[in-house]
Amino acid sequence: MDISDLKGKRAIVTGAGQGIGRAIALALAEAGANVAIADLNEQKAKEAASGIEKLGRKSLALKTDVSSMADIDRMITETVREFGSLDVMVNNAGVTRYAPIMELTEADWDSMHRVNAKGTFFAMQRAARQMIEQGNGGRIINIASISGKAFPGGSNAAYAASKAAVIVMSSVAALQLGQHNINVNAICPGITDTPLGDNIILQGAKVHNESTDDFIKRRTAPIPLGRQNEPEDIAAMAVYLAGPGGRNITGQSINVDGGLVMH
Ligand SMILES: NC(=O)c1ccc[n+]([C@@H]2O[C@H](COP(=O)([O-])OP(=O)(O)OC[C@H]3O[C@@H](n4cnc5c(N)ncnc54)[C@H](O)[C@@H]3O)[C@@H](O)[C@H]2O)c1
Prior knowledge:
Layout: E1 10-14, H1 19-30, E2 34-39, H2 42-54, E3 59-63, H3 69-83, E4 88-91, H4 106-134, E5 138-143, H5 157-177, E6 182-189, H6 195-207, H7 212-220, H8 231-242, E7 253-256
Parallel strand pairs: 1-2, 1-4, 2-3, 4-5, 5-6, 6-7
The structure holds nicotinamide-adenine-dinucleotide.
Nicotinamide-adenine-dinucleotide binds near residues 65, 145 and 197.
């Protein structure tokens, strides 16, 4: 078995204009899949899609807000119209900001839950509907966070709650969709070097009144393997879960964090 052979598979990755999502989309394409890029930022989606095409795969840039039901439905319909079917759905789009509990606003709570929890849930539900209709099973991968398990250093209670929601909804969906041969798993990244990660460093250093270097050192010091993630670390796990290697794995939330969550 070639554990990561995705030849002929059709995938969507949300929030794939940059960061972890873009790395996942490229890795799925390298493994053989055609990949639709769904992102709020149309320009970034187009750039990522042309990166996929350079690998010799089909791609599609879809301006999508995953918190809009109409956008989710359009994302699935257009992908199926272009590619013929949908085999792999990666719900990666997510938002956060670094904020201690007393500084969180209603707008923070709403935006994190609208994008991270609601967006993930309904994109998962609509993708599963399409997969059930096709009758060939499928793979759904939801990007949560170690913040949804235990990562006090994450310092954002609203974000943590939205990611805990992603972890739990993934296992409930796995239980109910197994009969359709649809595997559902969550990946929980630790600290990852992306534009979102850069913003957290800037905001966190400000909140704690320290230099960005000191903030980075303090946050990465407890990581047993000694480094933060590159987006490709998450992408490797996504390819595994999407491919033949992941065929009997479902309902899991897998940490990719250098061991940080053990603290
Ligand atoms: N970077 C980290 O340290 C880290 C750690 C744990 C989990 N995560 C999770 O990984 C995922 C990706 O994070 P990242 O660091 O690559 O973030 P990022 O901000 O660098 O990239 C996120 C992408 O999602 C898009 N996006 C935002 N809101 C959207 C919406 N409503 N609809 C569609 N697209 C939208 C953005 O335009 C952007 O291209 C997120 O779910 C995040 O919570 C990140």
